[in-house]
Amino acid sequence: LRLVAVLRAILEGEKAAVLKRERHLPLSFHRRQEELKFSLGLQRLQHRIREIQALRERDGTGGERRAGLDRSQPSAPTAPQELPALVLEAVKELEAAKQQVLKRIQIWKRQQQLAGNGAAFEENLAPLQKRCEALAELHFQLQQQVLAAGAELGAELLPRLLERLAEALGSLVKR
After folding, report:
1. How far apart are CA 77 and CA 90, in angstroms?
2. What is the total count of domains within the chain?
3. Residue 142 within a domain
4. CATH number of the domain encompassing residue 68
5. Maximum Cα–Cα distance for the chain, whole Å?
6. 114 to each of 79, 93, 103, 106, how far by Cα in Å?
7. Within a domain: residue 66?
8. Alpha-carbon span 88 to 80, nearest angstrom
9. Is residue 101 included in any domain, yes or no?
10. How far apart are CA 133 and CA 135, in angstroms?
11. How far apart are CA 55 and CA 138, in angstroms?
């Protein structure tokens, strides 16, 4: 994590230097930056889903140890609070990724409108479709983890999470 923070600081410094020198960055730079942000968001979401799965597997296989055979494990009492927090964080990241996809769809729509006035327009929808498919796949994986952890999440949190997940996918499909 420190390495990521150091690299981020270096890149921010480089970006600031380029912005001072060049007032306007080329459109390709902004597209690439947006693509990298989206990819990073998907990787974070995928990591959260793996964390949820690992926590569930650890709690599922370590249930006998938590019941009394091994009380020296310090994380055992906090595990029930850890899973809902991880799931909520994953849902937030899913919603953020959805917002990025919706933003890109709006940009594409605007470019299409401008093309009617003679502006250049890239008709290739493959990158946008790829984003939507990746997001739908991670949505499905997260929903599977939430359903599998239903008893651990509780009767009041589970319906709210499922509703948020359904709304996230529903709003993407409507657009």
Report:
1. 22
2. 1
3. yes
4. 1.20.1050.20
5. 73
6. 53, 32, 17, 12
7. yes
8. 13
9. yes
10. 5
11. 18
Q: Which residues contact 128 (CB under 8 A, 6 or more apart)?
A: 101, 104, 105, 108
Reading the block at residue 104, the tokens are 């890109």
Residues 28-38 have pLDDT tens digits of 777 888 889 99
Between the CA of residue 124 and those of 93, 114, 116, 128, what are the distances in Å? Answer: 27, 16, 16, 8
Could you list the residue range(s) of the whole structural domain that residue 92 is in? 27-174
In sequence order, what DSSP letters do the residues of 79-125 get, joined into one string?
HHHHHHHHHHHHHHHHHHHHHHHHHHHHHHHHHHHHHTTT-------
Give the type of residue at 71. Answer: R
The residue to which tokens 């140890």 are assigned: 65
Buried b (16+ CB within 10 A) or exposed e, 40-74: ebbeebbebbebbbebbeebeebeeebeeeeeeee
Q: Pick the more confident residue, 173 or 36.
A: 36
- Two structure tokens written together for 49: 């889903």
pLDDT tens figures, 117-150: 877 777 788 888 999 999 999 999 999 998 888 8
pTM above 0.90, yes or no: no
In terms of Cβ atoms closer than 10 Å to its own Cβ (0-12, 13-18, 19+), residue 150 is middle
Report if residue 73 sits inside a domain. Answer: yes
